[in-house]
Amino acid sequence: MLRPFALLARALPAIVLGSLVLAWLPAEQARAQAPVPAPAPAQVQAQAAAEDGYQLWLRYSPLPAGLRERLQARVATIVQLGADSPTLRAARQELQRGLGGLAGRTPAPAVAPRAGSVVLARAADLPPSPAREAQLRSLGQEGYLVQRTRLHGVEVTLIAANTDIGLLYGSFAWLRALQAGAADSLAAINAPALASRPALPRRLLDHWDNLDRSIERGYAGQSIWNWWELPDILDPRYTDYARANASLGINGAVLNNVNAKAEVLSAPFIAKAAALAAVLRPYGIRVYLSVRWSTPLELHETRNADPLDPAVAAWWQRKADEIYRAIPDFGGFLVKANSEGQPGPQDYGRSHADGANMLARALAPHGGIVMWRAFVYSPPARPGQMADRAAQAYEQFKRLDGRFERNVIVQVKNGPIDFQPREPVHPLFGAMPDTALMMEFQVTKEYLGFATHLAYLGPLFEEALRFDTRAGGVGTSVADVLAGAQAGHVGGIAGVANIGSSRNWTGADFDQANWYAFGRLAWDPKLGSAAIAGEWAAQTWSADPRVRDAVVALMMRSREAVVDYMTPLGLHHLMGTGHHHGPAPWVDDLERPDWNPTYYHRAARDGIGFDRSASGSNAAAQYAPEIARRLQDPATTPPELLLWFHHLPWDYRMPSGRTLWEELVAHYDRGVAEAAAMQAQWARIRPLVDPRRGADVAQRLARQHAEAQWWRDACVAYFQQVSGLPLPPGAVPPAHPLSYYQSLRFPYAPGHG
Amino acid sequence: MLRPFALLARALPAIVLGSLVLAWLPAEQARAQAPVPAPAPAQVQAQAAAEDGYQLWLRYSPLPAGLRERLQARVATIVQLGADSPTLRAARQELQRGLGGLAGRTPAPAVAPRAGSVVLARAADLPPSPAREAQLRSLGQEGYLVQRTRLHGVEVTLIAANTDIGLLYGSFAWLRALQAGAADSLAAINAPALASRPALPRRLLDHWDNLDRSIERGYAGQSIWNWWELPDILDPRYTDYARANASLGINGAVLNNVNAKAEVLSAPFIAKAAALAAVLRPYGIRVYLSVRWSTPLELHETRNADPLDPAVAAWWQRKADEIYRAIPDFGGFLVKANSEGQPGPQDYGRSHADGANMLARALAPHGGIVMWRAFVYSPPARPGQMADRAAQAYEQFKRLDGRFERNVIVQVKNGPIDFQPREPVHPLFGAMPDTALMMEFQVTKEYLGFATHLAYLGPLFEEALRFDTRAGGVGTSVADVLAGAQAGHVGGIAGVANIGSSRNWTGADFDQANWYAFGRLAWDPKLGSAAIAGEWAAQTWSADPRVRDAVVALMMRSREAVVDYMTPLGLHHLMGTGHHHGPAPWVDDLERPDWNPTYYHRAARDGIGFDRSASGSNAAAQYAPEIARRLQDPATTPPELLLWFHHLPWDYRMPSGRTLWEELVAHYDRGVAEAAAMQAQWARIRPLVDPRRGADVAQRLARQHAEAQWWRDACVAYFQQVSGLPLPPGAVPPAHPLSYYQSLRFPYAPGHG
C-alpha cells in the first residue's frame, strides 16, 4: 500500500528525499500482476449460485472438505455458562448460523460442556484460573479471548470476556478467523488464540440520512431507517445491520444527517429512535442523534438559541431527560454548527466551546456525550480576501483547546478540506492535547466516484491514522492522539456511512469493503489495510487464494488510481458543482470563492497549485515544527502533496526528471491505465466468482474506466488551455474539445440530501 | 365482493331499491369468519423458512407430495419446436425454474418429444391439425393454448401459440394453474385445457418515477430504474420485473412520471431507456415515456411549444425518429397537459386534440401511440364560482370525441375526481364512442393508506370495469368500452404502479396483490376479484385452503373497511394536504377551492354532501340518461355514493331507519371494527405462514387498526362540531379533542415526487 506522507512523517529527517522515490514502489509492485490460473470446471460450478450481496462478509460458505470435518468435531454443542441475556442470545445465534454454514452442521445448544463444545462464558462464570483471569482483566469492557482449553475436565473452544458484548465480539472474531483461508483457518479450528480489545471506546457510523429517507452523499438507495413506518414496523434489516456492525466492533450509530432538522427531537421521532435503539442494543450499538442548533427556537419553545441563556439550557436539559426516558443508553449528540449555513452559537457571539459545553451539561447526568464538529469555514470577510479554507478549522479550534467539558469530543475530518481523494492529515490532530478528538472519515465516496468507481479506502484511512503528528516528539500517530496519548483525553472514530437500502447495502459489492475496513480500523487503528482487504476478500468472495489474493491486489491499487485520474500531485476540489460528479476544474463563478475549483488549483500561465507556504497562506505552519519546516520547501514536500502546498511553474523540474506539466499528464495517463488494468484484472477473477456479482463488478469497472478517461481528458484539455503549453510528447489529445466537457450537465445525480 | 354500483347499473331499473340492501350482504357474509384449525407442528416447520417477498407470486414452492410425483412424470423434458428466440429462451427458463420448483425436478431441454415432454411450439411449427389450427387462429397475436395431446405419436403437454410471446404467456398460465391447489392443480397436471387471449391490446403500468429515483405517490422505496447507473449497469431486478409482468400479460411500461421533465428526451436518457427496453423486450414489454409538453422550448430548440407551429411539429418528428433509432419498438408517449400546472396546448389557445394529434403524427410512421390524459381541471374563473371539478374532464373532452388521430388514446381515470377509496365511474366512459379510451387505475395507494394499510383493490377495479355505462343501451360495460364495443376504437388499460426498490417490490406483501389483480384484469376484465385473490393467495402464501381461503376472506373485506373508516357514504377527498395521509376534513384555506376537503363534503349545520343533482352542479347529468335519472334522487342513488351526489340534512332518514348522522358514525365505527377483525383474522393465519412475512403483516395491520381509529375519531369529532349534534347513542367519544387531530403534522411523509 501507499502511505508516503505517513512514512515521511515517521522517519524524518533521514529518508525525506528517499520517500519521493519510495512512494511509488509498492504501487508499482502491485501493478505486476500475478497470473490467475484457470479454474477447474467443478469449482466454477460450485460457486455459480447467484449471490446478491445482502449477506455482506457474513456469508459463512462451507469450508473446504478437509477443514469442514475438523471443524465439525469441534462444534458439537454450544454451551453458555451463567445467566442468559439478549446479547448472549445474539452470540449463540450467530455461532449457530456461522458454524452451521462453515461446518455444514449446526451445533446444538447444551447445558454442560463436553469434548467438542464451544463455550461462551463471562469471566465471573468461569472456574478459577489465575493466568486466564489476568489476561481477561487486561481486555477491558469490550475485549475477548478465544482459546482451546480444558474446562471442567474436557477440551473445549472457549470464548470468554468480561462482558456480554465481549462474548459477541469474540464469537465474531472466531468466525472471521475460521474463514481466513488454509493454514489460518486450520489454526482457528485447532488452536485458536485470539485476544483483543479495542483501542478506542467510541467507534461510530455517522448516517447522513434525512427524515424523508433521502441520504446526503448516499449512493446506495434510500436510508435503511424507514422513519415513516417506525416505530410500528421493524424491518428485519435493522437486525442484520446490527450484526454486521457488531462483527466489526462498531458500537454507535448517529442515525440522522449532520445537516439536521428540528423535528428529529420531537416526540414522534424520539419514539422512532427508541424503537431502533431497542433492536440495536443487544448488539452493543448505542444510538446518537445529530441535532440542529436552533431546535428549541424552531419548535417555538424558546425565544432564542443563545447557549448562555438559562432558558435555552433548561430546554436542552428537559429534552435530554425526555430522550433518556425513552432511550436509557442514548449515546449523545453530534453537532454541525456555524458551518455551511447551519446555525450555531456564533450567531449569538458565543464560541464553539460555549455551545458544546451547554449541550454537554445537559447530557452529562445521563452519561451522554457531545461530538462537536470542527468542519467550519467562513466566506472571506471582504471580496478578494485570501482566507485559506484549509486553515480555518485550526484557527478557530486550536485556541479552544482545554476549554471543553469532559464529555465533549471535537470531531475532526481526516484532512483540512473535505474528504478529497488525498489530503494531508488535518493539522488539529496533535494540536489540541487537552481536548478529546474524534476522527471523521468518509466511508461513502462523495469525491471518489460514488458507487460506480471501485476505490478501496483502507489505504486512505491507514495513511491518516498512522501519520506521525510529531506532537510532543517522535511517535504520536493520529491513532495515538485519538486514544488520548497526549494528555489522557480519549476520543474516538466515526465514519460517514455508505449504507443504504440497496440490496447489497452499499450500492456496489466492493464498497462493502470500505465499511468493513473502517470498522476494523476503528477497533484496531494499527491494522494494515492490505491485511484487512485479505480478511474481507476471503469472507466476501472466497478464501481460495487465487480469488482472495487477486481481489486484494486489485483493491490495493484502486485508491491511488482514483487519485491519479482525478486529483494527482496534491490537486484537490476539481469536481463538478453540487453533485461532486466528474471533472469541472474550470468552475470559477460560484457565490463563494472557496467553492470554486479555480480557488484550489490556481492554475494560470505562470503555474499551478495553492501556495500554503510562508509566501502564501502559510497553512503549512499549522503542523508540528519539524513537519512544517519540510512543507515550506517544494523539494522536501511529499510529491503526492506538492500542489497542495506550493504554486509552481509548469516547467518546475520533478525528481523524475520530467517537468511538472509532463508529470501531471503522466499521472492522469497512469490513472486511466490503472482503471483499464483493474478491468482486465477482474476479467481474470470473474470466472472464479458467482455470475451475478461478477457481472455487476465488471459493468462498474467498465464505467469507471470510461469515466477515468473523461476525468483525464477534461482536466488535460483545461490545464493545457490555461497553461498554453503543447501536450507532452506522446500524450494522446483529449477526445473532445474543452467546450464539450464544460457543456455536460447532471441534473439528476444522486446524493443530494 | 361488493360492487353495488355495478349491480345497480346493470340491473336497472328492477333492483334499484334492492341494491340498497344487497350492497352490504356479501361483506356481512365475509365477516362471518370460518375458524382456522391449528396447524400440525410439522407443517408449521416446513413453512417456517424466512421469505422476504422478492419472489412475488413466482415462488414455485414444491407441490404436495402426491401431486409432485404426478407432475414429475409429465415434465421429463422440455422440447421446443422451430427456431429459437430470446422470448422462447425466457419461456424455457421459466418452465425450468417453475417446474423445477413445483415438481422438485428440473426438466431437461431435449430435441424430440417423448412421453412426458413439455412442448413449446408456434402454430407454424406444429404438425397439421384442423381443430387446433382453428382454435389457434381465434387466439390472436398474444393468446395461448395449453393442452394434453398426442404429438409425433407421444403424449405431451403442449403449449402452443401463434407468436413467441403467446408461448411465454402460455407457460406462465400453466405454471399458475399448477399452483391453484388440490383438484385444480391435479387437472392442470393431467388434463390442462387452457386457452386465452387478452381483451385489450395495451396493458400498461404507469410509473410515476422521477429521474432522481424518487416516486410521486410511491410507498415502496425508490424507483427500480436506477437512471444514474443506466445504461452501463443493468440491475438483474429489471429481468425479474419483466418476468412478473409477463406472468400477468402486462405488455407496456411508461418509465417516468406524468409530471415529466424535459431531460427524459435528451440523448443520455434515451440511451438509458433503450437499455431498459432491451432487457424488457424478450418479455413482450414495450417502453413508453411520459413527455412534458414544453420540452423543445425548455431545451431551447424551438421558440414556443404551439402544436400548430410547423417548427414545433418538426422538432417532435425529429425526436421521434431519434427515439425509434434507439428503441425500434418504442410504444409511444403519455401526456399530462394543461393539468395541475403542467404546460399544454391550451397555453397557445389550442385544444387537447390539437396537441395530441401533433404528437400522434410524429409517432404514427413508427407505429407509436399517444396516451393523452383526461385528468384536467382548472381553478374557478372567478372567486366563489362553483365549478365542479368532477365535471370538468367531461366538459372538456366530450366535445372532442372523434377529433383525435387513430393512434391517440384518451386516458381516463376510473372516477371523476382522483383515485378515492370509492368513486362513481368516470362519465367519459361510454360518452366518447368515436375515441379510443384507456382506463387509468391507481395501483399505488395514494388515498388508501399507503403501504401501511391492507386494502385489496381487486373489488375497486372490478366495480369500475363491470359498470354498465348504458351507452347505446343495456350491456356496454366499461370493459366493453375499452375494448372498442361502441365503434371499434380499441383502447387499453393502465395502472399507476406501486412498485419500488423495496425488497418485496411494493412495500407491503399484500400490495403485491394489487399489482397482480391489475395485471390479471388487464388481460381479462371479466375476471372476478375474489377468484383473482384466490390465485394470488395460493401462489404467494399457500395453496393450502386453510391459508388461501382465509387470506382471500381477509382481502375481500379490506377495501370496504378503508371506505368505511375514511370516506363512507360517498364522501371523498377528506385527507391531509399534500401528502394525503390521514384525516383533515377541516382544511379550508388552500390556494384553490377545489383542493380543500370542505369543498367536497360541504358539511354545515344544514347537512352534508356535494349536490351534483340538477339543483347543484348537475354533474349527475353527464351519465347516460337512465343512470342520470336515478342519480338525481337520493332515494334511487346507491347509498355508498349518496353524499357524492347529494347534499342532505343530518336527519335525513336512511333505508336502515337511522338518520344520516347515525349512519355516518355507524360506518366509521364499522370501519374500525373491520380493521380490528382483519388483525384478528391474520393472527389466526399467521402460524401457517413463514415468520418473517407473518410478522410484517401483523405489524402493518396493528398500525392500520390504530390509524382507522384515528380517521374515525378525527372525522367524527369534526363532523360533530360542524353539525352541532350530540354523538348517536352508544357511540364512543373520540379519544382526543378536535384540536389535537388538527395539530398533527407529517412533514416527512413519503410519496412526494
TrEMBL record, chains A, B:
Ranges that cross the membrane: none
Record's keyword annotation contains Secreted: no
EC identifiers of the protein: 3.2.1.131
Top-level taxon of origin: Bacteria
Catalytic activity: Hydrolysis of (1->2)-alpha-D-(4-O-methyl)glucuronosyl links in the main chain of hardwood xylans
Domain Alpha glucuronidase N-terminal: 56-174
Pfam families for this protein: Glyco_hydro_67C (PF07477), Glyco_hydro_67M (PF07488), Glyco_hydro_67N (PF03648)
Domain spans labelled Glycosyl hydrolase family 67 C-terminal: 506-730
Keywords: Carbohydrate metabolism, Glycosidase, Hydrolase, Polysaccharide degradation, Xylan degradation
Subunit: Homodimer.
Homology family: Belongs to the glycosyl hydrolase 67 family.
Name this polypeptide is given: Xylan alpha-1,2-glucuronidase
Protein source organism: Massilia norwichensis
Lineage, broadest ranks: Bacteria, Pseudomonadati, Pseudomonadota, Betaproteobacteria, Burkholderiales
